[in-house]
Give the backbone structure.
Amino acid sequence: MAATRLGGFMKIRLSRNKVFCPTLYKCRLLSDDRLQHLSKHHFWKSKYQQEVLSFDWFLSKENLSQFVKHVLQQYQDKIISAQHSVKAVENTLNLLGQFHILDLGCGSSALPECFYQWEHYPVTVQCLDYIYEAVQFQMHSMKLIRPGNKNSQVHGVCANACCLPYRSDIFHLITEKGTMDSLLKDTRTGQEKARQMFREVYRVLQNGGVFMQISDEDPDSRLFFLEDLSGFPCRWTVLDLAVDYEMNNNCFVYSFQK
């Protein structure tokens, strides 16, 4: 395993001498069956029916904001690289109209807020969760926030990540933080649900669009699982966000471009 710095984060290059074994991966999941409740709708429904407070897995809000700026700046830099001038970038963004972002399993995370406050071009952020109270919390929170760009929009959608209510090829960026981790806590159907979720992500992602998954699972396990999950060759990139000292946590970003 080798690593290099990339925009303040660590880009990991993994050796390809390992073979993913679904049976062993499932055994590893079974070893922590105490967390199976995290895959259950009734657990999250009960949690969000109580007092809902802003909460983020893996990253503090400050570090999450820094990461979002890094991601969106990379997107802008790709356009600059392709168009070779700032004026061309402005024209391209005007043609796009909106940069469409989907946050899968938004919960009460600050991730949608960070996207909504991006000032350099308009974004449309879709906050999707299968718990109505979580979506309601996001919509209430967004009313109290000034968007970074006056033309930015935010929408709340109560739906299942395994059956997305969108037409195909619509989003420029899809993110999820801990959503697939929760699905995989179900040792009986978790892997199949993760597969369904990935198929839906791929369907609604535009050609050239990017999917980003934030997880605390080590690349030695998760990367090979994702490659097996997709069912076709995907060029996955891994970023190590290093230790978030406020959260006392290490987490990784797994991403691919369609």
Remarks:
- The two ends are 25 Å apart (CA to CA).
- The chain is about 40% helix and 25% strand.
